[in-house]
Amino acid sequence: MPPTLTPLNTIQNVRLLGRDSTWDIVISPDSPSIITSVTPHQNPDSDKCSPLALPALTHPHIHLDKAFIHNSPDYAHLLPATGSFAEALSFTAKAKQLFTHDDLHKRGEWLLAGSVAAGVTAMRAFVEVDHTVNLTCLEAGIALKEEWKEACAVQIVSFAQDPIFSTEYGEVNRWLMEDAVIRPQVDVIGTTPYVEVTMGAAKQNIRWAIERALEYNKHVDFHLDYNLDAGKEALVWFVLSTLKEKGWTVHFTDKRVMLGHCTRLTLFKDEEWELLAKEIRDNDLPVSFVGLPTSDMYMASPSSKSHDRPRGTLQVLEMINKHGLDAVVGINNVGNAFTPWGSEDPLSLASLGVGLYQAGTTADAELLYKCVSTRARAAIGLSPSEASLTLSQGDRADILLFHDVDDTGCNISRPRHGVAGIVWDPPAKISRDVVVAGRLKTSCALCPRTAYRFA
């Protein structure tokens, strides 16, 4: 069940990024979602280590209905045998035949509970709609969205994993999606163009999603260009041309476009990246990219088992720093055949990014934190723009506090300094306190907080 949340007026004696001494964060009871003021703390206790306060975390792309299939005994017969993408598609299709509302609710709560404990207060959650599950996943997702709304803002994506313009089930899949996307609880239309049988059908898929998103005022989110084949057309260009054709700009709508995976783009040359960035910038297209490295590194590879097995995932930091593109990173799947490794903690991705992107500076660490926090929240349209990591007056009162605790059982605690220390070696969840809209999530009784006070 959702956690107990206790309203706060003040969070006292915390450290803030880039500021000396310690500070008190004041939250007005009249506007509990907003920080009213940030003032110097008087008479700090120099013998205690005050926690670092940072903006809370965000999942910009995660599958709610397929989470933790491997943790449920109902699916023990569907553990990976070859680890291939084809097998993941096949085994997940078989698992979906067994989905029930109760099962989806249980596994969804596992994901929500673990995510909130890690510091996630917002997520974009994909739930599948097709001839196998009908609207069961969507209905379970909507129920979880309502039940957990005080602890986490859940954006529901009505998601067509299966074809909607090809195969014998394409038409019924599309009818079900048409029914789903008109629901007010659905925030995003999501599709997977690359599963269509032909390139023509893939483009129909893209055009349909963009047209429906504009018609019903929804965000749109594509699983796109998930291959490492230079001989295949990169559909990102068709997405951009269709957005331009339909007039989807930052001036026309506040809804955004997200492109996920896009491993084919890792084969782009500099001039292609520059053209892509220019197309987006010159046409005011509200487009963001989400790299999904735990899935991409596992799945996006040629089928050959030779020693020459390149892996592909978007170079997110280079896209931001070199090309000026909007990009973030996300978990995608956890505990299923598409991604049997990794956890629901976004900081594990930020840490992975240090090695993946050869990003070892403190500035890199801060950008990686933003990619699972303030940048991610803005990319999915839950904030108008990216916020600073230094909390200040007027910021959201969604706050994650990191402190030094003994998580070893040896009466020893090891400090981590600044954002870099947290990204390089993420502390355990028991070292974190989560504040959601000015309310404190009940902390672990084993971890007393003595360096600072709530009021």
Question: How do you describe this structure in short?
Answer:
With 455 residues, this protein is an alpha/beta fold. The chain is built from 13 helices and 17 strands.
Oligomer: single chain
Helix content: 25-40%
Give the ordered list of helices and strands: EEEEEEHHEHEHEHEHEHEHHEHHHEHEEE
Terminal-residue CA separation:
25 Å
Shape-level CATH architecture of the largest domain: Alpha-Beta Barrel
What do we call the CATH topology of the largest domain?
Answer: TIM Barrel
By DSSP (H or I, 4+ residues per run), the number of helices equals 13
Q: Unreliable segments (pLDDT under 50, ≥5 consecutive)?
A: none
Q: Compute the CA-based radius of gyration.
A: 22 Å
Strand content: 15-25%
Q: Helix- and strand-based class?
A: alpha/beta
Number of strands: 17
> How many structurally independent domains?
2
The main pleated sheet reads as: 9 strands, mixed
CATH level 1 name of the largest domain: Alpha Beta
Write down the overall mean pLDDT. 93
Shape, please? globular
CATH superfamily of the largest domain: Metal-dependent hydrolases
InterPro entries: Amidohydro-rel, Metal_Hydrolase, Metallo-hydrolase_Enzymes
Organism: Aspergillus ibericus CBS 121593
GO molecular function: hydrolase activity, acting on carbon-nitrogen (but not peptide) bonds, in cyclic amidines
Keywords: Hydrolase
